[in-house]
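Let's practice the habit of predicting before peeking. Look at the sequence and jot down your guess about where helices and strands might fall. Then scroll down.
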Amino acid sequence: MAFGKRTQDYRYLRDTRRSCPRKIGLLVLPVTHPEHPDWPLWLLVSRQGQGRSPWYLLTNDPITTLDEGWQRVLAYARRWQIEQTWRFSKSELAMESPHVWRWADRRKLLLMASLACAFLLLLLRQWCHRTGQRLRQVRLPLYRLRSALSRLWLAHAPPSLDFALLNSG
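Done guessing? Here is the structure:
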């Protein structure tokens, strides 16, 4: 449906992975579903550039201007960043195996994860503060977290733990 149609608007958005601006195009098309012709829908096509497949976003929110279309595309991009961060954080904190389906259980899991993250960020502040210009500019939160945990462990190791037993096997 969008193949061969020209992009209606372009913007330069910052590519956070490559730290450079990227030219993104937007095409907004009103569409209808064959089984529900009385429900208006809008197809947003965000063209990411050469060699990358476009995003096709379908919404029932009325799109009257291109700025409203850009708001939807940018909201989806932010949502995708949040999903990627959550997936990475779950795997890094070894929380990928709990499968919860009910809302109350999800809420409890999210609250426990928030408490754990708050505690770990407190460790970062105390045991691995940033010094120097380079470390203030570079984002290395998980590596800093590992460093902070190891420094805390070295400073306050439990006295009953025998390191010879741990190293032997």
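How did you do? The mean pLDDT is 77.
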